[in-house]
Amino acid sequence: MKELVEVIAKALVDNPDEVVVTENVNGKSVSIELHVAASDMGKVIGKQGRIAKAIRSVVKAASTKDNRKIDVEIV
User: How far apart are CA 16 and CA 68, in angstroms?
Assistant: First the structure.
């Protein structure tokens, strides 16, 4: 899932070199943190959080086959 978030984020931002994705696993729960440049924050979040919500939806759909709960946080 980490790679999926990284590929999506790098496609959206102007500075793909500054995209950092970290993954923390606790049993069946996984927390993914996405760090981007301050100037790219708006592109990753989108108007009214629509792009962030879409990223979370794609990750949730991909995680159903693994039976894991995945939270995506944009930091």
Answer: 28
Q: What are phi and psi of 22, to 5 degrees?
A: -120, 150
Strand bridging mode 69-74 / 20-26: unpaired
Q: What is the pLDDT of residue 67?
A: 85
4 alpha carbon, distance to own chain's centre = 8
- Tell me which residues of the chain have a pLDDT lower than 70: none
The whole-angstrom distance between residue 49's C-alpha and the CA centroid of its chain comes to: 13
Give this prediction's pTM: 0.89
Domains, in order of start, for the chain: 2-74 (3.30.300.20)
